[in-house]
Amino acid sequence: MLRSQCLVAMLVTVAAGFPAACNKQPTKGMGGKGLAGMPPVPVMVAKADQESVPTQLRAIGTVDASAIVQVKSQIAGEIVKVAFTEGQNVAQGDLLFVIDPRPYEDALQQAEANVARDRAQIVQYQAMLARDEAQAKYAATDAALQASLHKEGLTSTEQADQAHTTAATARESARATHASLDTARATLESDLAAVQRARLDVSYCEIHAPISGRTGNLLVHAGNLVKVNDVPLVVIHKVVPIFVNFSVPEQHLAAIRRLSTGRKLPVTVSSQDDPGRSETGSLAVIDNAVDTTTGTIHLKAVFDNRSGMLWPGQFVTAVLTLDNIPNATVVPAEAVQSGQRGSFIYVVKPDSTVEARIVTPGVAFGKKMVIEKGLAPGETIVIDGQLRLFPGARIETVAPGKFGLGQS
Questions:
Q1: Model pTM above 0.70
Q2: Torsion over CA of 41, 42, 48 and 49, rounded to 10 degrees?
């Protein structure tokens, strides 16, 4: 019991003396134990620059193909050949599939035979029409002659009537032959259309790439029967050019519309797994309505994608550049620290000591940050080694290649 009371008394005594010990400032000339005797802190420094900084909007976007085509068959039949490999880049017009052409070639031959038959019938009806018209003309002349002779009493009524009947019969026969000729010509037109359709079906036996792009998985293999406009055989994504879709807050809509008038706003994207690699394109589409559920406006940028960096469905970081901030104070982003009073930067004074200066950070771009207030261009700042610093600490600048060597 006595030992416990003694231990409590000792703790109270230590706690009572701790604040005084902490608040006591080291003084100069204490044999290396004060500020003057402390060794300088090794740090890396840089100067605040003055640059023209782009005003940028950053968002997460998704990559979409500029065109997606599901390749289907326009005829029914058996696939006898697949002329590409899965995941292959194809050009517009390249052969993809061959469907058994034999039934369609037979249908074409039949249609062409029907056309030949129709033309022969037309020639036959034309000859018959010429004969019937000649006979009708002769019969009409004979009927007129018999009628004239009958008026003069040189022939009987029966002969005149017979000549008139013969002329009428010949005339109607010629009209019937003319109608048959018209029917044969109509049949020829129909069979010619059938030939065109049969030739089209034969051409559909070879399925060519409708666009240039990259093929996906083969969905129907050779040997399978396909129907007209049934399941897709393969899907082609056009990736040159390619789109990136992203959204920005609606308060930027007016500026985007104003600045995009008469020029294309640049958009830079980088993949999340390789942020050091980027692709530059331009803003192509501003959506026609604000999304009221999210308060954002949908944008679409277009990229040449000649390098093949962008891939449909990929998530990327999109940066839309609107305008430039002239004469901005710029520092490396790692110089800005966070404290209880806000953001601050260690500024190096002429006597090689540092002060913690409260600053107002602005936009960040790349590995740099704009300082809107609290720092002037040309001032020297600490960019690495801040963890060992405190206001008034003396520093020693170290080259980047040697920083951290021999430090615990």
A1: no
A2: 170
